[in-house]
Amino acid sequence: MSTLTRKLLIAALVAVALVAGIGVYFQVYKASQQPVFAGPKPPMDAQDQAIGMLPATPLDQLPEPDRTRFAERLREAAQSIKPGYRIEDERLFLYPGGFNAVEKISGSYLSGEFGYQLDSDASTQVNGQNVDYLIWRSGSWLRSQFDDRIVAAVQYSKSVDPDSDERLLGYFVMRPS
After folding, report:
1. Model confidence over 107-123: pLDDT tens digits?
2. Looking at the chain, which terminus has fewer C-beta neighbours within 10 angstroms, N or C?
3. In a 3-state reduction of DSSP, which class is residue 111?
4. Three-state SS for 61?
5. Side-chain half-sphere of 11: how many Cα atoms within 13 Å?
6. Exposed e or buried b for every residue in 51-87, given b needs 16+ CB within 10 A?
7. What distance in Å separates the CA atoms of residue 132 and residue 153, rounded to the nearest whole number?
8. Spatial separation of the C-alpha atoms in residues 57 and 119, rounded to whole Å
9. pLDDT in tens, 90-105
10. d(CA 117, CA 105)
C-alpha cells in the first residue's frame, strides 16, 4: 500500500469519525441538555397544545392554601414512587381527564423530542390514597449515558372535590440523588 493510499484511508476514517461524533453530539448529548418542560402546560407537542389537548389548570392559579397543600401531596407522591431520586423540575395541575390521555399525548412528546420510552405504568398507595403513575426514561443505552433524567407523571385517582372530577396531576423531572 502506497503512502498516498494510506493517507487517504486515514483521512477518510477521520472524516467518518468526525461525522459520527457530530451526529452523536446533536442527536444524543444536546437533546439530553434541553429542558423537558417548554412552558407552563403539560408536556406535549405544539400541535396538541394548539388544539387544547390535556385541558389542565396549573396549581399556580389556585388560592394559596390549596396550592401549597396540593403541591406538597404531589411532591410526596413522586418522592415515594422514586425514593432515590430528587425533583429537578415540576409542573403541577388540576386535570379533569383520564390518565390514558396523559400517557398518549405526553408519551408522544417525550418520545419524539427526547427519545424517552415508557418504563413504568402502575399504581401505588400514598398515605392511603391510590396514585397512578407513569415513568419515562431514556430509550437507548447510548442516550442514557448522557441523560439520567426520568419524567414521572403522577395522578391521584380520587378527585380533590366530591362535586368535581378534577384530580391532582403532576409532572416531575427527576435525577438520581
Report:
1. 888 888 888 899 999 99
2. N
3. helix
4. helix
5. 6
6. eebbebeebeebeeeeeeebbebbbebbbebbeebeb
7. 8
8. 26
9. 999 988 877 787 888 8
10. 13
